[in-house]
Each structure stands twice: as C-alpha cells, then as structure tokens.
Amino acid sequence: MKHINEVISRPSQITHLTGASNYTWVHFRDGATVLLSKPLSYFEEYLPDFVRVHKVAMVNPHYIQQIQSPPRAKTPGSVTLQNGVVLPVSRRRWPDVTDALDRLTRLENSEFTQLANNQRGVGESLRGRVEQETGVPSQLITPPSRQVYAVIKDDVKSLLLQQILQEKWPQCTVRFFANGSSLIDHIALREPPALVLLDIRTVGWNGLNALEELKRDKRLRAIPTVVFISNQSGNDVEVCYATGANSVISQTGSHEEFKNAVERICQYWLNFAALPIARSLRA
C-alpha cells in the first residue's frame, strides 16, 4: 500500500493509467511506467481529477492534446495525448471526457485572469532584468497575445466564433477581416495575434495569398494559422500545407461542424500549445 501511495503521490506527473484484470500500469510524462497490483477502478477514488475514458484506461485531462468523437454507432472515439499516445474512448464515457475538458478550460481561464491581475504594476527593476537576460528592450516584449484574427465572410460562423471565445476564453478577443489583404495590412503594424483562422471557402484564394504572405515574412511565420477548406477541394490540402498552414480543416461547411472544429482548435492553440513571445513588429 505504501508503494502505491508513493506512485500516485505525483498526479501532475502521470499522463495516464492502463489496466488489465487486477493490474494497472501507471504512465509518467518522462516515459517511465510502474506496474501495480490493483485494478484500474481502484485508482478512480485516489485520482478524482482523472477521467475514465474506457474500461482499460484513465487519463489526466491536462495531457490531452486532441479528441476524436466516435465516428459512428458502436465504435469508440479516441484521445491523443501530448506524448502521442492514442487511447480509446467508449461511447458512454464520451460526455465525461468533454465535461472534463470544459472544466479544465474554465479553470485555466480563471488562472490566467488572476495571473494577469497579479502581474500588473511590474517595476522598473524587473524590466531591467528582462533587458539584461534577453538583450531585447523590455518595451518590445509582451506576454503571448490573446487575440484571434479571423478571415471569415459568413455572418453565422463569425457569430459562433465570437460566442465560443466569450464563453470559454473570455480573456481573448477576436477581430474579423473581410479578406486576406486587410489582414496582412493590419497585422504588419501591430502585435501578432495568438491565432489566425482563414476560411478559404468564404473568402476564396485571397485567403491563401494571405497565408503565403504570413509564412514568407520571418516576423510573422511563427503565428499559428489554421485554414478551413471544403472537403471536395482536391489537392487543396497539400497546397495549404505546402504554403505553411499549421493545420488544415476539411469540412462540408455546416455551421455545427464549424462550431465543433473551432472549439477543438482553440482548445489546442489557446490552452495546450506553447506560443512564442510576441515582439513588436514596429521595432
């Protein structure tokens, strides 16, 4: 029992647990595993923040990078962890996974707001330390941007995106652009956003031109850029990736499908991904 308590005393270091019969493997973020002679159900009481995604697996939601809903009846969904491990999610446990991610998102949003409040009023001594350690004048360094720029001409999709950010990422703001040219003109003189969304389906290949401009400029190419295309777009997926897109989302164009995709995209880029420090583009 003492050995078990020692193993699970560091839940933040545990990515997931897998079980078979009366044995459980505990998997740590550094790749280490420990075999314990207890069934997986035993650990649900001691790791209440973990999610039982399947009869053979429990997951630490902090390490979930991507989720895939069940594609059809009687087939499982899946979760992909930050270390690349893919685990099944049974259909009846799917709501538990989405609820856990929603709770995690709300918690992280609250913590971010508190951190921002605590960091106000930083003195000149800290600014001097930043300059000394980075070699960059402190006025040119800001925390990662919390803005999302979107090139979308569909009013319903624009409203959905705005609602999602207001509800789940209230510390973020969104700015819409009618075309790729106006996006480039605006972004060239301001702090880079945390994320750019380009809907090629509604703005046409002008959006692809904007993507090309973003990735050509060494000051802008690190901005995460997600492109939406039609799922009947032939080789457009290859073209977008070759141009520098970080992700390409192929969809039918339904608003519900768009809403689900945007939630997952923001979940990854605004919660899990490490974003570059923003540097003034006017320097």
TrEMBL record:
The modification 4-aspartylphosphate is found at D199. It comes from the Bacteria. InterPro entries: CheY-like_superfamily, LytTR_DNA-bd_dom, Sig_transdc_resp-reg_receiver. Residues 147-266 form the Response regulatory domain. Keywords: Phosphoprotein. Residues 1-103 form the HTH LytTR-type domain. The keyword Transit peptide does not apply. One of its GO terms (molecular function) is DNA binding. One of its GO terms (biological process) is phosphorelay signal transduction system. This is Response regulator.
